[in-house]
Amino acid sequence: PNYLIDLCLSSFSLKYPPVKFLSEKDRKRILITGGAGFVGSHLTDKLMMDGHEVTVVDNFFTGRKRNVEHWLGHENFELINHDVVEPLYIEVDQIYHLASPASPPNYMYNPIKTLKTNTIGTLNMLGLAKRVGARLLLASTSEVYGDPEVHPQNEEYWGHVNPIGPRACYDEGKRVAETMCYAYMKQEGVEVRVARIFNTFGSRMHMNDGRVVSNFILQALQGEPLTCVFNLQHLKNRNLNANALCPNFIMMSCLFPSDLVNGLVLLMNSNISSPVNLGNPEEHTILEFARLIKSLVVSRSQIQFLPEAQDDPQRRRPDIQKAKMMLGWEPVVPLEEGLNKTIQYFSRELEHQANNQYI
Ligand code: NAD
Ligand code: UDP
Ligand code: UDP
Protein backbone atom coordinates (compact mmCIF):
# COMPACT_ATOMS: atom_id res chain seq x y z
CA PRO A 1 0.00 0.00 0.00
CA ASN A 2 2.84 2.46 0.73
CA TYR A 3 4.23 2.10 -2.75
CA LEU A 4 0.74 2.48 -4.22
CA ILE A 5 0.06 5.56 -2.09
CA ASP A 6 3.33 7.25 -3.14
CA LEU A 7 2.65 6.41 -6.78
CA CYS A 8 -0.89 7.80 -6.75
CA LEU A 9 -0.02 10.97 -4.90
CA SER A 10 3.21 11.86 -6.68
CA SER A 11 3.08 10.34 -10.18
CA PHE A 12 -0.65 10.64 -10.88
CA SER A 13 -1.12 13.84 -8.81
CA LEU A 14 -4.21 12.41 -7.13
CA LYS A 15 -5.45 14.20 -4.06
CA TYR A 16 -5.97 10.92 -2.16
CA PRO A 17 -5.00 7.27 -2.60
CA PRO A 18 -7.71 5.29 -4.44
CA VAL A 19 -10.66 4.19 -2.31
CA LYS A 20 -12.99 1.30 -3.16
CA PHE A 21 -16.70 2.07 -3.38
CA LEU A 22 -18.70 0.21 -0.73
CA SER A 23 -22.46 0.16 -0.51
CA GLU A 24 -24.06 1.64 2.63
CA LYS A 25 -24.73 -1.88 3.91
CA ASP A 26 -21.07 -3.00 3.65
CA ARG A 27 -19.45 0.27 4.73
CA LYS A 28 -18.51 0.30 8.42
CA ARG A 29 -17.71 3.13 10.81
CA ILE A 30 -14.38 2.08 12.25
CA LEU A 31 -12.43 3.55 15.17
CA ILE A 32 -8.67 2.94 15.30
CA THR A 33 -7.09 4.00 18.60
CA GLY A 34 -3.36 4.59 18.16
CA GLY A 35 -4.08 5.00 14.44
CA ALA A 36 -1.32 7.57 13.90
CA GLY A 37 1.34 5.09 15.06
CA PHE A 38 3.32 2.54 13.08
CA VAL A 39 0.83 -0.36 12.86
CA GLY A 40 -2.25 1.87 13.21
CA SER A 41 -1.39 4.01 10.19
CA HIS A 42 -0.94 0.93 7.96
CA LEU A 43 -4.28 -0.37 9.22
CA THR A 44 -5.82 3.04 8.47
CA ASP A 45 -4.58 2.80 4.88
CA LYS A 46 -6.04 -0.67 4.40
CA LEU A 47 -9.46 0.14 5.86
CA MET A 48 -9.69 3.48 4.02
CA MET A 49 -8.71 1.89 0.70
CA ASP A 50 -11.26 -0.87 1.37
CA GLY A 51 -13.91 1.89 1.45
CA HIS A 52 -14.76 2.21 5.15
CA GLU A 53 -15.21 5.33 7.29
CA VAL A 54 -12.22 5.57 9.61
CA THR A 55 -11.82 7.63 12.76
CA VAL A 56 -8.30 7.73 14.17
CA VAL A 57 -7.93 8.61 17.84
CA ASP A 58 -4.39 9.31 19.01
CA ASN A 59 -2.64 11.39 21.65
CA PHE A 60 0.54 11.56 19.50
CA PHE A 61 2.78 10.19 22.25
CA THR A 62 4.66 8.00 19.76
CA GLY A 63 2.45 8.49 16.70
CA ARG A 64 2.62 11.33 14.18
CA LYS A 65 0.14 13.22 12.05
CA ARG A 66 2.54 12.69 9.15
CA ASN A 67 1.71 8.95 9.16
CA VAL A 68 -1.91 9.62 8.16
CA GLU A 69 -1.62 13.08 6.56
CA HIS A 70 -2.44 11.70 3.08
CA TRP A 71 -6.03 11.14 4.31
CA LEU A 72 -6.59 14.53 5.96
CA GLY A 73 -9.66 16.17 4.42
CA HIS A 74 -11.04 12.94 2.90
CA GLU A 75 -14.77 12.63 3.57
CA ASN A 76 -14.36 9.09 5.01
CA PHE A 77 -11.57 10.09 7.38
CA GLU A 78 -11.38 11.82 10.73
CA LEU A 79 -8.41 12.41 13.05
CA ILE A 80 -9.08 13.16 16.72
CA ASN A 81 -6.37 14.24 19.14
CA HIS A 82 -7.54 12.39 22.25
CA ASP A 83 -6.08 10.35 25.09
CA VAL A 84 -7.92 7.04 25.58
CA VAL A 85 -7.44 7.35 29.35
CA GLU A 86 -10.28 9.89 29.07
CA PRO A 87 -13.77 8.65 28.12
CA LEU A 88 -14.75 8.94 24.47
CA TYR A 89 -18.30 9.23 23.14
CA ILE A 90 -18.64 8.52 19.42
CA GLU A 91 -20.77 6.18 17.29
CA VAL A 92 -18.93 3.30 15.60
CA ASP A 93 -19.40 -0.32 14.43
CA GLN A 94 -15.89 -1.66 15.03
CA ILE A 95 -13.00 -0.63 17.27
CA TYR A 96 -9.38 -1.60 16.64
CA HIS A 97 -7.81 -0.76 19.99
CA LEU A 98 -4.09 -0.20 19.39
CA ALA A 99 -3.37 2.80 21.60
CA SER A 100 -0.35 1.96 23.76
CA PRO A 101 3.34 2.64 23.58
CA ALA A 102 4.93 -0.51 22.15
CA SER A 103 8.74 -0.33 22.29
CA PRO A 104 10.56 -0.93 25.60
CA PRO A 105 12.11 2.59 25.79
CA ASN A 106 8.70 4.14 25.09
CA TYR A 107 6.66 2.07 27.52
CA MET A 108 9.34 2.32 30.24
CA TYR A 109 9.57 6.11 29.82
CA ASN A 110 6.45 6.57 31.96
CA PRO A 111 5.38 3.17 33.34
CA ILE A 112 2.39 4.60 35.22
CA LYS A 113 1.05 6.17 32.04
CA THR A 114 1.60 2.86 30.20
CA LEU A 115 -0.47 1.12 32.88
CA LYS A 116 -3.20 3.75 32.70
CA THR A 117 -3.36 3.54 28.91
CA ASN A 118 -3.64 -0.25 28.90
CA THR A 119 -6.06 -0.51 31.84
CA ILE A 120 -8.23 2.64 31.99
CA GLY A 121 -7.86 3.20 28.24
CA THR A 122 -9.04 -0.34 27.48
CA LEU A 123 -11.87 -0.04 30.01
CA ASN A 124 -13.06 3.12 28.27
CA MET A 125 -12.96 1.50 24.84
CA LEU A 126 -14.88 -1.52 26.16
CA GLY A 127 -17.41 0.85 27.77
CA LEU A 128 -17.78 2.54 24.39
CA ALA A 129 -18.13 -0.85 22.62
CA LYS A 130 -20.80 -1.87 25.13
CA ARG A 131 -22.77 1.37 24.74
CA VAL A 132 -22.83 1.38 20.94
CA GLY A 133 -22.80 -2.42 20.38
CA ALA A 134 -19.47 -2.32 18.53
CA ARG A 135 -17.03 -5.20 18.18
CA LEU A 136 -13.59 -4.51 19.74
CA LEU A 137 -10.27 -5.97 18.65
CA LEU A 138 -7.47 -5.60 21.19
CA ALA A 139 -3.89 -5.35 19.90
CA SER A 140 -2.35 -7.59 22.54
CA THR A 141 1.20 -8.87 22.41
CA SER A 142 3.51 -11.87 22.60
CA GLU A 143 4.74 -10.17 25.79
CA VAL A 144 1.76 -11.68 27.63
CA TYR A 145 3.86 -14.89 27.42
CA GLY A 146 6.73 -13.02 29.21
CA ASP A 147 10.06 -14.85 29.04
CA PRO A 148 8.43 -18.08 27.84
CA GLU A 149 9.35 -21.55 29.06
CA VAL A 150 7.78 -23.34 26.08
CA HIS A 151 8.65 -23.01 22.38
CA PRO A 152 6.98 -22.18 20.17
CA GLN A 153 4.24 -20.39 22.13
CA ASN A 154 0.68 -21.35 21.34
CA GLU A 155 -2.39 -19.55 22.64
CA GLU A 156 -2.94 -22.10 25.43
CA TYR A 157 0.28 -21.08 27.21
CA TRP A 158 -0.38 -18.90 30.27
CA GLY A 159 2.96 -17.14 30.22
CA HIS A 160 5.90 -16.44 32.49
CA VAL A 161 5.84 -12.78 33.45
CA ASN A 162 7.67 -11.02 36.28
CA PRO A 163 4.88 -8.86 37.76
CA ILE A 164 7.28 -6.35 39.32
CA GLY A 165 10.03 -6.16 36.70
CA PRO A 166 10.79 -3.24 34.37
CA ARG A 167 8.65 -4.69 31.54
CA ALA A 168 5.66 -5.36 33.80
CA CYS A 169 3.87 -2.07 33.08
CA TYR A 170 3.44 -3.25 29.49
CA ASP A 171 3.23 -7.05 29.91
CA GLU A 172 0.83 -6.96 32.85
CA GLY A 173 -1.01 -3.98 31.35
CA LYS A 174 -1.79 -6.06 28.26
CA ARG A 175 -2.68 -9.10 30.37
CA VAL A 176 -5.23 -7.02 32.32
CA ALA A 177 -6.49 -5.58 29.01
CA GLU A 178 -7.15 -9.15 27.81
CA THR A 179 -8.84 -10.01 31.12
CA MET A 180 -11.08 -6.95 30.73
CA CYS A 181 -12.06 -7.98 27.20
CA TYR A 182 -13.27 -11.38 28.39
CA ALA A 183 -15.02 -9.90 31.44
CA TYR A 184 -16.97 -7.53 29.14
CA MET A 185 -17.68 -10.41 26.76
CA LYS A 186 -19.02 -12.72 29.49
CA GLN A 187 -20.78 -10.14 31.65
CA GLU A 188 -21.98 -7.60 29.10
CA GLY A 189 -22.07 -9.59 25.83
CA VAL A 190 -19.50 -7.32 24.11
CA GLU A 191 -17.99 -8.98 21.02
CA VAL A 192 -14.21 -9.09 21.43
CA ARG A 193 -11.25 -10.23 19.34
CA VAL A 194 -7.71 -10.52 20.76
CA ALA A 195 -4.63 -10.51 18.53
CA ARG A 196 -1.37 -11.50 20.22
CA ILE A 197 1.09 -9.71 17.98
CA PHE A 198 4.76 -10.78 17.74
CA ASN A 199 7.66 -8.47 16.77
CA THR A 200 6.68 -6.42 13.73
CA PHE A 201 8.86 -3.86 11.97
CA GLY A 202 8.56 -1.61 8.94
CA SER A 203 7.99 1.82 7.47
CA ARG A 204 6.44 4.57 9.62
CA MET A 205 8.24 3.37 12.74
CA HIS A 206 9.45 6.37 14.72
CA MET A 207 13.17 7.14 14.36
CA ASN A 208 13.47 6.95 18.16
CA ASP A 209 11.31 3.83 18.47
CA GLY A 210 14.23 1.88 19.91
CA ARG A 211 13.24 -1.62 18.79
CA VAL A 212 15.91 -3.88 17.46
CA VAL A 213 15.34 -3.80 13.69
CA SER A 214 14.88 -0.03 13.45
CA ASN A 215 17.92 0.46 15.71
CA PHE A 216 20.09 -1.80 13.55
CA ILE A 217 18.96 -0.18 10.29
CA LEU A 218 19.55 3.37 11.53
CA GLN A 219 22.90 2.38 13.02
CA ALA A 220 23.97 0.65 9.79
CA LEU A 221 22.87 3.62 7.66
CA GLN A 222 24.77 6.08 9.88
CA GLY A 223 27.93 3.97 10.19
CA GLU A 224 27.41 3.50 13.93
CA PRO A 225 27.95 0.20 15.76
CA LEU A 226 24.99 -2.19 15.72
CA THR A 227 24.03 -2.69 19.38
CA CYS A 228 23.59 -6.43 19.59
CA VAL A 229 22.34 -7.71 22.92
CA PHE A 230 23.64 -11.08 24.06
CA ASN A 231 22.95 -13.39 26.95
CA LEU A 232 25.79 -13.21 29.46
CA GLN A 233 24.81 -16.47 31.13
CA HIS A 234 25.03 -18.43 27.89
CA LEU A 235 28.47 -17.04 27.25
CA LYS A 236 29.65 -17.84 30.81
CA ASN A 237 28.32 -21.37 30.53
CA ARG A 238 30.36 -21.90 27.40
CA ASN A 239 33.40 -20.08 28.68
CA LEU A 240 33.47 -17.87 25.60
CA ASN A 241 33.79 -14.17 25.22
CA ALA A 242 31.67 -11.89 23.13
CA ASN A 243 34.37 -11.42 20.52
CA ALA A 244 34.68 -15.12 19.85
CA LEU A 245 32.08 -16.43 17.40
CA CYS A 246 29.21 -15.16 19.49
CA PRO A 247 26.63 -17.81 20.35
CA ASN A 248 23.88 -15.30 20.54
CA PHE A 249 20.94 -17.32 21.72
CA ILE A 250 18.39 -14.56 21.97
CA MET A 251 15.98 -15.60 19.27
CA MET A 252 13.21 -13.63 17.67
CA SER A 253 11.12 -13.41 14.56
CA CYS A 254 10.09 -10.54 12.33
CA LEU A 255 6.72 -9.73 10.78
CA PHE A 256 6.00 -6.86 8.35
CA PRO A 257 3.05 -4.46 8.56
CA SER A 258 1.19 -5.54 5.39
CA ASP A 259 0.98 -9.12 6.71
CA LEU A 260 -0.01 -7.94 10.18
CA VAL A 261 -2.86 -5.68 9.06
CA ASN A 262 -4.28 -8.41 6.82
CA GLY A 263 -4.31 -10.68 9.87
CA LEU A 264 -5.94 -8.04 12.06
CA VAL A 265 -8.74 -7.43 9.57
CA LEU A 266 -9.33 -11.17 9.03
CA LEU A 267 -9.50 -11.70 12.79
CA MET A 268 -11.85 -8.76 13.37
CA ASN A 269 -14.28 -10.11 10.78
CA SER A 270 -14.02 -13.75 11.89
CA ASN A 271 -16.07 -15.46 14.59
CA ILE A 272 -13.04 -16.31 16.75
CA SER A 273 -13.39 -14.62 20.11
CA SER A 274 -10.43 -16.39 21.79
CA PRO A 275 -6.86 -15.00 21.44
CA VAL A 276 -4.98 -15.59 18.18
CA ASN A 277 -1.21 -15.30 17.63
CA LEU A 278 -0.13 -13.17 14.66
CA GLY A 279 3.59 -13.46 14.01
CA ASN A 280 6.27 -14.94 11.84
CA PRO A 281 7.42 -18.40 12.95
CA GLU A 282 10.74 -18.02 11.08
CA GLU A 283 13.24 -17.60 13.91
CA HIS A 284 16.64 -15.90 13.84
CA THR A 285 19.19 -14.85 16.42
CA ILE A 286 19.72 -11.16 17.06
CA LEU A 287 23.23 -11.59 15.67
CA GLU A 288 21.85 -12.98 12.40
CA PHE A 289 19.58 -9.93 12.09
CA ALA A 290 22.56 -7.64 12.70
CA ARG A 291 24.67 -9.37 10.05
CA LEU A 292 21.86 -9.48 7.50
CA ILE A 293 20.97 -5.80 7.96
CA LYS A 294 24.64 -4.81 7.74
CA SER A 295 24.96 -6.64 4.43
CA LEU A 296 21.67 -5.31 2.97
CA VAL A 297 22.68 -1.74 3.83
CA VAL A 298 26.23 -2.47 2.62
CA SER A 299 27.46 -0.85 5.79
CA ARG A 300 30.92 -0.81 7.35
CA SER A 301 29.46 -0.56 10.86
CA GLN A 302 30.91 -2.74 13.59
CA ILE A 303 28.78 -5.07 15.67
CA GLN A 304 28.91 -4.12 19.33
CA PHE A 305 27.90 -6.64 22.00
CA LEU A 306 25.93 -5.45 25.00
CA PRO A 307 24.64 -7.49 27.95
CA GLU A 308 20.90 -8.03 27.88
CA ALA A 309 18.48 -5.97 29.93
CA GLN A 310 16.61 -7.45 32.91
CA ASP A 311 13.78 -9.88 32.00
CA ASP A 312 14.51 -9.71 28.26
CA PRO A 313 12.73 -12.74 26.70
CA GLN A 314 15.29 -15.26 25.43
CA ARG A 315 13.16 -16.69 22.65
CA ARG A 316 9.85 -15.82 21.09
CA ARG A 317 8.47 -17.86 18.32
CA PRO A 318 4.76 -17.93 17.54
CA ASP A 319 2.84 -21.11 16.92
CA ILE A 320 0.49 -19.83 14.20
CA GLN A 321 -1.49 -23.04 13.59
CA LYS A 322 -4.65 -21.39 14.90
CA ALA A 323 -4.37 -18.37 12.57
CA LYS A 324 -3.57 -20.70 9.67
CA MET A 325 -6.45 -23.08 10.32
CA MET A 326 -9.12 -20.61 11.37
CA LEU A 327 -8.24 -17.45 9.42
CA GLY A 328 -6.29 -18.93 6.51
CA TRP A 329 -3.57 -16.44 7.49
CA GLU A 330 0.20 -16.69 7.40
CA PRO A 331 2.96 -14.18 6.66
CA VAL A 332 3.91 -13.90 2.99
CA VAL A 333 6.48 -11.07 2.88
CA PRO A 334 10.00 -12.59 2.66
CA LEU A 335 12.45 -11.35 5.30
CA GLU A 336 14.90 -9.66 2.91
CA GLU A 337 12.12 -7.93 0.96
CA GLY A 338 10.55 -6.57 4.17
CA LEU A 339 13.92 -5.44 5.50
CA ASN A 340 14.82 -3.74 2.21
CA LYS A 341 11.57 -1.74 2.26
CA THR A 342 12.24 -0.75 5.87
CA ILE A 343 15.79 0.28 4.96
CA GLN A 344 14.45 2.47 2.11
CA TYR A 345 12.00 4.10 4.51
CA PHE A 346 14.66 4.92 7.10
CA SER A 347 17.08 6.29 4.45
CA ARG A 348 14.31 8.65 3.32
CA GLU A 349 13.64 9.64 6.94
CA LEU A 350 17.32 10.45 7.47
CA GLU A 351 17.29 12.55 4.28
CA HIS A 352 14.10 14.30 5.44
CA GLN A 353 15.73 15.03 8.79
CA ALA A 354 18.90 16.37 7.14
CA ASN A 355 16.88 18.63 4.81
CA ASN A 356 14.77 20.03 7.63
CA GLN A 357 17.32 20.58 10.34
CA TYR A 358 17.84 24.27 9.56
CA ILE A 359 14.14 25.17 9.26
P1 NAD B 1 3.45 2.86 18.07
O1 NAD B 1 4.13 3.40 19.27
O2 NAD B 1 3.98 3.27 16.74
O3 NAD B 1 1.89 3.16 18.10
C1 NAD B 1 1.14 3.34 19.26
C2 NAD B 1 0.18 4.49 19.03
O4 NAD B 1 -0.67 4.66 20.19
C3 NAD B 1 0.90 5.82 18.83
O5 NAD B 1 0.34 6.50 17.73
C4 NAD B 1 0.65 6.56 20.13
O6 NAD B 1 0.71 7.96 19.98
C5 NAD B 1 -0.72 6.04 20.52
N1 NAD B 1 -1.01 6.15 21.96
C6 NAD B 1 -0.23 5.76 23.00
N2 NAD B 1 -0.85 6.03 24.17
C7 NAD B 1 -2.05 6.59 23.86
C8 NAD B 1 -3.12 7.10 24.63
N3 NAD B 1 -3.09 7.08 25.96
N4 NAD B 1 -4.20 7.62 23.98
C9 NAD B 1 -4.25 7.67 22.61
N5 NAD B 1 -3.24 7.20 21.84
C10 NAD B 1 -2.16 6.68 22.46
O7 NAD B 1 3.51 1.27 18.22
P2 NAD B 1 3.00 0.10 17.25
O8 NAD B 1 4.13 -0.81 17.04
O9 NAD B 1 2.27 0.67 16.10
O10 NAD B 1 1.96 -0.64 18.22
C11 NAD B 1 0.54 -0.57 18.04
C12 NAD B 1 -0.12 -1.58 18.95
O11 NAD B 1 0.28 -2.90 18.61
C13 NAD B 1 0.21 -1.40 20.43
O12 NAD B 1 -0.93 -1.64 21.20
C14 NAD B 1 1.23 -2.48 20.69
O13 NAD B 1 1.22 -2.89 22.04
C15 NAD B 1 0.77 -3.57 19.75
N6 NAD B 1 1.89 -4.46 19.40
C16 NAD B 1 2.85 -4.07 18.49
C17 NAD B 1 3.90 -4.94 18.21
C18 NAD B 1 4.97 -4.58 17.23
O14 NAD B 1 5.93 -5.35 17.10
N7 NAD B 1 4.89 -3.50 16.50
C19 NAD B 1 4.00 -6.17 18.85
C20 NAD B 1 3.02 -6.51 19.79
C21 NAD B 1 1.97 -5.65 20.04
N1 UDP C 1 -17.17 5.00 28.37
C1 UDP C 1 -16.68 5.74 27.29
N2 UDP C 1 -17.49 5.92 26.21
C2 UDP C 1 -18.76 5.40 26.14
C3 UDP C 1 -19.23 4.66 27.24
C4 UDP C 1 -18.41 4.48 28.33
O1 UDP C 1 -15.55 6.21 27.30
O2 UDP C 1 -19.41 5.61 25.12
C5 UDP C 1 -16.29 4.80 29.53
C6 UDP C 1 -16.96 5.26 30.82
O3 UDP C 1 -16.49 6.55 31.12
C7 UDP C 1 -16.50 4.25 31.84
C8 UDP C 1 -15.93 3.08 31.05
O4 UDP C 1 -16.10 3.41 29.68
O5 UDP C 1 -15.46 4.77 32.63
C9 UDP C 1 -16.65 1.79 31.32
O6 UDP C 1 -17.99 1.91 30.96
P1 UDP C 1 -19.12 1.02 31.61
O7 UDP C 1 -20.43 1.44 31.03
O8 UDP C 1 -18.77 -0.40 31.51
O9 UDP C 1 -18.99 1.37 33.15
P2 UDP C 1 -19.74 2.41 34.08
O10 UDP C 1 -19.89 3.68 33.30
O11 UDP C 1 -21.02 1.74 34.38
O12 UDP C 1 -18.82 2.55 35.23
N1 UDP D 1 17.88 -5.66 21.08
C1 UDP D 1 19.17 -5.59 20.58
N2 UDP D 1 19.66 -4.37 20.21
C2 UDP D 1 18.90 -3.23 20.25
C3 UDP D 1 17.55 -3.31 20.73
C4 UDP D 1 17.10 -4.54 21.13
O1 UDP D 1 19.89 -6.60 20.50
O2 UDP D 1 19.40 -2.14 19.86
C5 UDP D 1 17.36 -6.99 21.47
C6 UDP D 1 16.61 -6.98 22.78
O3 UDP D 1 17.49 -7.18 23.86
C7 UDP D 1 15.64 -8.14 22.60
C8 UDP D 1 15.36 -8.14 21.11
O4 UDP D 1 16.41 -7.37 20.51
O5 UDP D 1 16.24 -9.37 22.94
C9 UDP D 1 14.01 -7.53 20.72
O6 UDP D 1 13.92 -6.29 21.36
P1 UDP D 1 12.94 -5.12 20.90
O7 UDP D 1 13.25 -3.94 21.74
O8 UDP D 1 12.99 -4.97 19.43
O9 UDP D 1 11.47 -5.66 21.21
P2 UDP D 1 10.80 -6.38 22.44
O10 UDP D 1 10.41 -7.67 21.84
O11 UDP D 1 11.79 -6.51 23.57
O12 UDP D 1 9.65 -5.53 22.80
Per the principal axes of the C-alpha atoms, what is the gross shape?
A: globular
Mean pLDDT: 93
Strand line-up in the sheet with most strands: 3-2-1-4-5-6-9
pLDDT < 50 stretches: 240-247
The set of bound ligands, ions and cofactors reads: nicotinamide-adenine-dinucleotide, uridine-5'-diphosphate
Q: Tell me about the biggest sheet?
A: 7 strands, parallel
Describe what you observe in this structure.
With 359 residues, the chain is α/β, with parallel strands linked by helices. Helix content is 39%, strand content 14%. Strands 3-2-1-4-5-6-9 form a seven-stranded parallel β-sheet, sandwiched between helices. Strand 1, helix 2 and strand 2 (53-58) form a beta-alpha-beta unit. Helix 2 (38-49) packs across helix 8 (257-268). Bound molecules: nicotinamide-adenine-dinucleotide (NAD) and uridine-5'-diphosphate (2 copies).
Write the layout of secondary structure elements.
Elements lengths: L1 H10 L17 E5 L4 H12 L3 E6 L18 E5 L12 E4 L6 H6 L1 H22 L2 E7 L26 H21 L3 E6 L14 H10 L4 E5 L1 H6 L13 E3 L3 H12 L7 E3 L4 E3 H12 L5 E5 L13 H7 L7 H22 L3
Helix pairs in contact: 2-8, 4-5, 6-9, 6-11, 9-11
Q: What keywords describe this structure?
A:
359 residues; alpha/beta; seven-stranded parallel β-sheet; two-stranded parallel sheet; 11 helices; 39% helix; binds nicotinamide-adenine-dinucleotide; binds uridine-5'-diphosphate
What is the compact description of this entry?
The chain is α/β, with parallel strands linked by helices and 359 residues long.
